[in-house]
Amino acid sequence: MAVPQSKEPASSDPAAAANPAPLVLASASPRRLQLLQQIGMTPADIDPADIDETPRKRELPPAYAKRIAAAKADAVVARHGGAFVLAADTVVAVGRRILPKPEDEAAARACLTLLSGRRHRVLGAVVVQAPDGRRADVLVTTAVVFKRLCEAEIEDYLAGGEWRGKAGGYAIQGRAAAFIPRIIGSYPNVVGLPLVETRNLLTGLGYRT
Fold this sequence. Notes:
By secondary structure, the protein is an alpha/beta fold. The protein has one domain (21-204): Alpha-Beta Complex (Maf protein), CATH 3.90.950. It has 7 helices and 7 strands; from the N terminus they run H-E-H-E-H-E-E-H-E-E-H-E-H-H. It has helices spanning 14-17, 30-38, 61-77, 105-115, 151-160, 187-191, 195-204; strands at 23-25, 45-46, 84-94, 97-98, 119-129, 135-145, 182-184. Strands 1, 2, 3, 4, 5, 6 and 7 form a 7-stranded mixed sheet that branches. Strand 3 and strand 4 form a beta hairpin. The protein starts with 13 loop residues before the first helix and ends in a 5-residue tail after the last helix. It is an enzyme of class 3 (hydrolase). Belongs to the Maf family. YhdE subfamily. The active site is at 89 (proton acceptor). Its EC number is 3.6.1.9.
């Protein structure tokens, strides 16, 4: 009679069944962290990339978004060997024009004035690198329609301060939601991270929650 082969006992440590490699978010954005937590993909570490985000001369919005997301990933991968690294960039574009992430009211006012009564694009570029060096990326585009804003609405929004550092000078998850009657595409992409596509990139490279 054949003698059954012995097997290693199953580990009772829950960590053993989890990912052997941690997830690192290459962003300081609290919105991206909250979105990842929403789908159960809480990163083990947050390490923002400090890179030059100045657009190149005549650089188009899609190329810019992909380049910046890849540069963020490159900067953080070098500091986290053996981890999954997730980097992203969100760009608000009107035609070929890349809108800034304003740090002063004048720049934010210019953004809101330009967006008023128009349809624009929000481009979300996401890059994931696996511990073995494999890399995957995606670019997601959402169309956003702004109602026509009066001067009082712009000034009231500026006074609230939530525009500071936001692409295009507004936050759809905040008071600016009152300016947006319609979007076509991914809502979380406008907030800061397209969730369906991000999850697909991570799981496709082997990350498991």
